[in-house]
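Example 5.3 — Inositol-1-monophosphatase
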Amino acid sequence: MARSAIINVMVQAAMKAGRSLARDFGEVQNLQVSLKGPGDYVSQADRKAEEIIHAELSKARPGYAFLMEERGAVEGDDDQHRWIVDPLDGTTNFLHGIPIFSISIALERQGQIVAGVIYNPAMDELYTAERGGGAFMNDRRLRVAARSKLSDAVVGTGIPHLGRGHHGRALVELKNVMGETAGIRRLGSAALDLAYVAAGRMDGFWENWLAPWDLAAGILMVREAGGFCSDRDGGQAMFDSGTIVAGNEAIHKALLKTIQQKS
Ligand code: 2AM
Ligand code: CA
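Solution (predicted structure tokens):
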């Protein structure tokens, strides 16, 4: 399958940053990282990966703006295009030697996400999507799962931790979803969760308190695989609300209803 020029640029940046993350992840796994500074070590790995992506993308498309997890917003001369980048999604997993983390790169054109790449370097799984062109994993076409009943569905989520999110609300949602589904999974990388929904590995996904860089590429991935994404109210304010619900048409609808229950 021939990839478009823009996807090639994004894949090249993601793979190069992925090699850097994989090296650093190896050090974490081999316990080469001093116990006093694993957090610092991971922030360094994160910043290095972001540096590589920023350099690669700026070289290939000078002037495009950026929204990146570490640097924040970087203005560009081109007001039509913006890269939305998470250089390391799944930081906690990375720090603990769990090989579920990813690089997420999306391209927004006039406010619309037109291309997305998600790469898990530890498993060498590369997800790509282009608006109107479908979604792929290592060049194999993706399609969301066909299960239509919530009772058959395996659904992903993110669980807030110490100092983050509203724990009471999260517990209500978990209680209601666990009572209606075949299982809940918690991977720890929202970008990969969405890629897994696109790949039909999970039937749905919901999470609150996320940032645009966790979501941008994954939303396109799910849609290009035939799935649906919305915020927790069923609208399209995923970036502003930091919430997402995803799945095929039936699962998306049912999951939305379940997580909206008040108690
Ligand atoms: P991260 O690994 O880049 O921090 C896990 O439930 C998901 O939540 C991951 O995608 C994780 O991204 C994200 N996450 C964790 N803390 C966050 C925060 N303070 N703001 C936005 N997203 C966050
Ligand atoms: Ca993230």
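Remark. Helices lie at 5-29, 38-60, 91-95, 167-178, 190-198, 212-224, 238-241, 249-260.
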